[in-house]
Each structure stands twice: as structure tokens, then as C-alpha cells.
Amino acid sequence: MKCRYCGRIIPEGKLYCSHCGKEVCIVPDYNPLDDMLTAQIKGAITGDNSYDAEEIYDSIRNTGDFHKNDNRRTTGRTTSRTTGRTATRTTGRQMSERERRRRQAERRKAIRRRKRKRALLIIGGLLLIILIVGIAAYQTSYIGMINKGNKNLNNKDYNLAESYFEKALSKDEKRADAYIGLSKVYLAQKNEDKAESVFLNAIDKQKDNVDLYDACIQYYMDTDQKEEIPLLLEDAKDSVVDALSEYVISKPKFSLDSEEVYDDVQELTLTAKEGYTIYYTTDEKDPTTNSEKYSSPIQIKEGETVIIAIAVNKDGIPSLPSKKTYTVELPVEDAPAVSPSTGQYESAMQIEIKVPDGYEAYYTMDKSDPTTASTKYTGPIPMPEGETIFKAILVNAKGRTSDITTRNYVYNSGN
Q1: Closest to 278 (Cα-Cα) out of 299, 297, 304
Q2: β 261-262/322-328 pair status
Q3: Greatest CA span in the chain, whole angstroms?
Q4: CA end-to-end span of the chain
Q5: Confidence tier at 1 by pLDDT (50, 70, 90)
């Protein structure tokens, strides 16, 4: 064996080096790094991270005494061995305690996982129950009935569709969806009167229900009955009219006062809101979009003329008709000119009436006042013998008559 201090060979059985006098180390010095390395290897094999080499090293370093001088090495070796054994036992206890804590932590985690799993199962069950209840509630709800009705309507099962819409109405009669569905069912069966009555009957009971009015208007739009819209809104409440003002079309305006009687031919001008088109009639029938389209002033001739006009917006929705009656009375002759004048005559005379253009003359010779039913004047009339009361009038094209001209004739022929 070699001396670890001077390197000389020490004979067997010698306890001291004969050269340097140092004690021979029979038992190897305790090296705490060995325990640290062992702990690290064990941890790597078992997968236990609780074996912290640094902690082991610190524990051994704090209890051991391997920083002594070389002249105290023997004492150090003894102390180191004792301390090493103590550190090993202490480290073992520490590792056992850590293992126990690790296992307890794992058990607690497992318990928490089981609790979470149970909680999730309970929550999932509750959600499933809520979903089932929600689906059942939806199936019997107003919207559920409407959707079923529409589905059967699309499948042309009209009886079943009608029953679902009726059930929806029994749940809520104020909402418009069920009425719309019923009208579509009747339209699909070519029953337009019944389809319209669905809305009108409901409106009659709910006069302030804007949604019902709007649904009825859409029905008229879809079925090309736009002329019914102003009639529908005519008697509606102000709140409804205000809410549906986009469908309220203002009437055309007339330039002439219908209360005045005119003594000459007139020109009537019609105006409406910008973008509106005006249609009118003169035969006392309500106008439509097929009637005369207003483009220039209307001539109001002698007599009585009835003008009815509507305004129509760009969507084809008309206003209510506006009606005006105009009267033009042209001046008539005061009385016709009749010749000869009143008097006694001994020779035959011809009675003549001067008839202005645009007039006709009527006369009598029996003292009665003439009318259009009397004898019409067509030319000179021979004066009768004896006394004759001749009366004549003029009648214009509109049937207005002039005053009466009266002549008293006495004709004696002398025979």
C-alpha cells in the first residue's frame, strides 16, 4: 500500500508511514458526495423527485466535518463516518416522510377527481333534464305550434296546419303569426274571402293592434289588393295610423272650389306629393290605376262635372278617392226676339223667332208657358186668324231656358 501523503510503499501490517510518519488510513474516508450520487441514481430509477441531492448534500455538510485540517484527518474520518450514518438515517426518514406526503397528495387529488366527476355527472343530468323539459315546453309553446303549422302547410297538409295555427291562437290571440298562417292555409285552398276575413275579424276585436293591421296590409300587398289598404286605415285609430304612416297616402289637391258656380268654362289642376301619380274619372266611378292618368289641366265645361281622383305612391298604394263636383252655368239670353211685334194685322204675317247659336226655341199659342216639351221652332210660323197669344223661349245645350217672350196677335183677313 502506498502512503497517501508521500507516496512511499508501506509494508503490510504497518500502521504508520516510516518516511513521513503519517497514519495509514485503513477505512476509506467518508465522502458525502457518494450518498448524494446514490440518492440521485435512486430517484432517477424510482421516478421519485423527492430525493433532492442538494438537500442531502447540505444535510451531510451541516452535520459532518470534512473541512478539518490534515492533522485532524483521523478524527475527521471517525466523525465523518458517524455523521454520514446519522445523515443517512435522517435522509431516509425525510424521504419516507416526503413519500407519505406525496401519496397523501395523490390520494387527495384522486378524491377531488372523483368529486369533480360526480359533480359533472350531476350537472350533465340536470342539463339533460332541463333540455328535455325545454324541448317539451317548446313543442307546446306558441312558437312551437307556429313552426308545426308552417311545416304542415309546406307539406300541403292543410287540415293539420289549420289545427296547429288555431292552437297557437288559443295561447296568444294578439300576435299576428297565427293569423298569417291561417290566411296562407285558406289562400292555398283558393278561399280568398276567408283568408281576408281572418284579419278583418281579428281587427274588429282588437282595434289598437298595430301588428294585425300590418299583417293585413301585407296580405293585401301580396294578393295585389293595394286599393284596400286606404279603406282599411280609414277608420283606424290615430295610434295605428301613426304607426303605419308609410301606408297612408295623402289625397290629391284640387285647384278649383267646388262650392262656387262658375259662369265660364274652367281648367282644373290636380296636385299631389312628389313621386305620386294621379288617376281620375269623370263618370262618377272610383278611379284605379287603370283610369285616366292626370298629365294636364282638366277642362270643366258648362253644366255639372264630377271629378274623382286618387294619388298612388311608387309602391302602388293608393290614397282614398277625393271627389269634387263642379257647376258651370253660362249666361243665357234674357228672352228670344220674336217678330212681328204685338198688334192687329189685316194681311197674313209670318211669326219668326231669332235663335242664337247653341240654342233651340220652343213656343205655344194656347196661352200656356212653353217648355222643352212644347212645339220646337223650326222656321217661320203663319199667323193664325183671330186673336193669338204667342209665347216663346230659348233653351241652351245644357237645358237652361231663357225668359218667355209673349206676343198678342189679332189677325182679320177681311173675308
Answers
A1: 297
A2: parallel
A3: 217
A4: 209
A5: low
What nine digits make up the cell of 118? 360526480
Q: Please state, in angstroms and rounded to a whole number, the distance separating the CA atoms of residues 289 and 311.
A: 9
Contacts of 203 (CB under 8 A, 6+ apart): 209, 212, 213, 216, 232
CB 220 within 8 A of CB 208: no
Beta-bridge partners for 406: 391
pLDDT at 55 over 90: no
CA distances from 414 to 329, 351, 384, 410 (A): 49, 20, 14, 12
Closest CA to 363 of 355, 317, 371, 256: 371
Query: pLDDT by residue (tens digit) across 365-409?
Result: 999 999 999 999 999 999 999 999 999 999 988 888 999 999 999
Q: What angle do CA 97, 47, 95 make, to 5 degrees?
A: 15
With 50 as the cut, is the pLDDT of residue 73 above it?
no
- Whether 284 and 306 have beta carbons less than 8 Å apart is answered as yes
CA-wise closest residue to 161 among 179, 138, 185, 139: 185
297 Rama sector, left if φ>0, alpha if ψ -120 to 50, beta otherwise: beta
Conformation bin of residue 316: beta by default, left when phi > 0, alpha when psi is -120 to 50: left
Q: What's the rounded Cα separation, in Å, for the pair 70 and 160? A: 109
Phi, psi values for residue 275, rounded to 5°: 95, -10
Which has more pLDDT, 169 or 138? Answer: 169
Mean pLDDT of the chain: 85
The pLDDT of residue 20 is 77
Alpha-helical runs (H) found in 140-223: 142-154, 158-171, 177-188, 192-205, 210-222
Identity of the residue numbered 37:
L
**219: exposed, middle or buried (C-beta count within 10 Å: 0-12, 13-18, 19+)?**
buried
For the four alpha carbons of 201, 207, 208 and 214, in that order, the dihedral sign comes to positive
Spatial contact of 393 and 385, defined as CB atoms under 8 Å apart = no
Q: Is the peptide bond before 252 cis (omega within 30 degrees of 0)?
A: no
Instruction: Of 143, 142, 163, give the one whose Cα is nearest residue 152.
Output: 163
In this prediction the pTM is 0.56
- Residues 44, 45, 51: CA angle, nearest 5 degrees: 50
Alpha carbon distance 72, 336 (integer Å) = 172
